Amino acid sequence: MPDSYTIRLLARGDALAYTALRREMLNDSPWAYYRSPQEDPGCKAELVENELSTVDRYAIAGAFTNDAASRLVAAAGILRSGSQKTAHRATVWGVYTSPPHRGRGLGRAVVSAAIDCALAWRRGPGSPAIEAVTLGVSERSTAARALYTAMGFVAWGAEPDAVRIGTERYAETHMHMDLSVRR
Q: What is the CATH number of the domain that holds 33?
């Protein structure tokens, strides 16, 4: 990855930058996400800002350009399960790289940063151990699925007709990664 990007977890002050990227991703790749821009909470800066304040449960890793604009151009979210029975898992969600910045390793970088965040939660005092990460990927997102497979995610099932856009139907592949292999 070129030195022209900084990878880091988003802070509350990044909420507006994230909502702009979220709108872009939902418009650019609607088959890859369950919600439209009109109904997605990630398009509301105040909601994103509040979620980014949550410790050991929710984070978004981002890639920012290293120029005067410092624009957010890639992101991957991670969410720890809120249920006691599934507290050992976290879910990667909302992975996206803006088209002009694709092919530079940013997808891998932000997903890795999100997983590293989950590993840090695992080491936190009093925190339940995060032992696995899951995600879903649209059948149309073949490059994303190839990336996840290369990173160590394993497909375990497919959900037919997961997303509908007009008359088009898209299946989603569910994937899992055992974090003990990343120790």
A: 3.40.630.30
